[in-house]
Amino acid sequence: MTTVTDAALTRAAVSVVGRLPPPAKLAHMACELYLRMSEVGLAKNWSFDLAITQLDLADMFGLSTVHLNRSMQTLRATNAISWDGSRVVIHDWRKLTDIGEFDPTYLNLEPKPR
How many domains are there within the chain? Predict the structure, then answer.
């Protein structure tokens, strides 16, 4: 990873954690994870496995488990995403990116000529 990419990831993380409401934070995380996991073959057909507990997610975002669960329910109600156990399924990418204010350019995932 280059220093520029690392700095972009840090700026995006600080912006997301500090500014977005919890459902949007979850949407942003799901978008980023999907793209990153797709790059290495761990996500396809708009779904991926996320073996993490709600307690761990709540800790990551500085929320109580109750608030995290409510945020997940709010996000599910948009019909943009669903969770079935550890399986995350994205039903509407555009809606999910809008909710999470997600712009993938900071990930720098496009292949570069060598």
Answer: 1
Q: How far is CA 26 from the centre of its chain?
A: 6
> 0.85 exceeded by the pTM?
no
Could you tell me which of 88, 110, 85, 103 has the C-alpha nearest to residue 30?
A: 88
Closest of 85, 11, 4, 34 to residue 26, by C-alpha: 34
The answer to whether residue 7 scores a pLDDT higher than 70 is no
CA–CA separation, 71 and 77 (whole Å): 10
Q: Which domain holds residue 65?
A: 3-102
Residue 32, domain CATH: 1.10.10.10
